[in-house]
Amino acid sequence: xxxxxxxxxxxxxxxxxxxxxxxxxxxxxxxxxxxxxxxxxxxxxxxxxxxxxxxxxxxxxxxxxxxxxxxxxxxxxxxxxxxxxxxxxxxxxxxxxxxxxxxxxxxxxxxxxxxxxxxxxxxxxxxxxxxxxxxxxxxxxxxxxxxxxxxxxxxxxxxxxxxxxxxxxxxxxxxxxxxxxxxxxxxxxxxxxxxxxxxxxxxxxxxxxxxxxxxxxxxxxxxxxxxxxxxxxxxxxxxxxxxxxxxxxxxxxxxxxxxxxxxxxxxxxxxxxxxxxxxxxxxxxxxxxxxxxxxxxxxxxxxxxxxxxxxxxxxxxxxxxxxxxxxxxxxxxxxxxxxxxxxxxxxxxxxxxxxxxxxxxxxxxxxxxxxxxxxxxxxxxxxxxxxxxxxxxxxxxxxxxxxxxxxxxxxxxxxxxxxxxxxxxxxxxxxxxxxxxxxxxxxxxxxxxxxxxxxxxxxxxxxxxxxxxxxxxxxxxxxxxxxxxxxxxxxxxxxxxxxxxxxxxxxxxxxxxxxxxxxxxxxxxxxxxxxxxxxxxxxxxxxxxxxxxxxxxxxxxx
Length: 558
Description:
Elements: H1 7-13, H2 19-26, E1 33-35, E2 41-43, E3 56-62, H3 72-85, E4 90-94, H4 99-103, E5 111-112, E6 115-118, H5 120-124, H6 130-150, E7 157-162, E8 166-168, E9 178-180, E10 191-193, E11 195-197, H7 202-209, H8 213-222, E12 224-228, E13 233-235, H9 236-239, H10 242-249, E14 256-260, E15 265-268, H11 283-292, E16 295-299, H12 304-319, E17 323-330, H13 332-338, H14 351-369, E18 375-380, H15 387-400, E19 404-407, H16 409-412, H17 420-431, H18 446-456, E20 462-465, H19 467-478, E21 486-489, E22 509-518, E23 523-528, E24 547-548, E25 554-555
Parallel strand pairs: 3-16, 3-17, 4-15, 4-16, 8-11, 17-18, 18-19, 20-22, 21-23
Antiparallel strand pairs: 1-2, 2-14, 5-6, 6-14, 7-12, 9-10, 12-13, 14-15, 22-23, 24-25
Pfam families: FTHFS
Keywords: ATP-binding, Ligase, Nucleotide-binding, One-carbon metabolism
Protein name: Formate--tetrahydrofolate ligase
């Protein structure tokens, strides 16, 4: 019995072109390209000989994720390749992978099979060092804050009311809660502290929402990292270090250029998680891609209840852009799991489970429609899918009035014909009418914004605020932050805040345990349920299968 090659084997066998060739084909003038080796580069948008952003945006989202896998990045890459194959001028805009999930449970984030961005091993690991720069800027801020307190604390910062943490691009539960400054007077001022993962850092969010380096500096200055003893917010600008933080990020802020197996140019830049942050690649990369291509295919993390909602209500609002089409990725396997089938039995045909689980996809479709955009369903094909199951799902989509196509881009690639039908549907949606709108007005109170999201998008009956969250609401109102949009931090596995409740539950309440004003990024994070801003590793981390061979080539990377 023959076995299919792994993603890494496919990537290593692919013909990869010098990055200057990819840049030239994309219309990037040599002055704007800064090479990082032969196959990676950074683009300086200020040096581009290109018009203002005008390309249309295709947002790729998905049903609620399951351990069965949905393949959103794979579909994103395959769709873009297929659109390019059909003659469209296309560019991809993706997030950078975090080392936490690469070494943990999720694996890499560069697509899969014959729909990948390359070089996959370098992108999945240290890439061009952007995450290290963001980590350094975050931790430099906290070193400067604690030094200020130690050196006399002229800003009157209350160490008990710090709202900013140190970060690490790793899943390390042991660092969630720590005590620093121990060892005597010369070691600093003792206080309780902790670590978030880098992708949850507000500096990551600022990095991804800034429009240029000047805006980056201004947003960094607006970050609130704590409060004084009389409960007045203290910002980076009060400390006077926004210039130093910008200096640490001045190279990282330039978008990274790579390519797909089929040679489609891709900008991979920034990487906030969608369950604990806003889940979209950098606005600078998206707008740069819109200057260079007629169609920009981008994605937002996890299901449409998280990443897509945040794209619409946060990124699109700040960037002044609107998606011309939204693709919702689904798989037969994941829908059967939503219908109650165990992962070990997903290869067995089961129309009853498929019918039971399709309600999850249905809610995501209806949610996209609430933003005034007609969704297109991409059925990401797995080899175990039966023809009967695929036909049933296509018929269900037709009955719902939703365009849908089977995409076999993992096995046949978007550069082949695996995504041609999906690309045709998306191209039609892009060319069609668009009545994009945000879900809520910024004039609503923070409480009402949260209630709108949990009722309209999650399907909840209402929201319950803890006592600390109610106190935060009063602080937000008092400090004049009520006009900011909301970024929900919620489990990705369910519409509820309980990861075990699959499908499309009804009759539940979302529990908000705390609210975190992110005044630099420009949104309020609502922490729900048990969601963590520093994940932990699983019992069997992906790192256990990773290695290098005698020639230094990676082994076991997915």
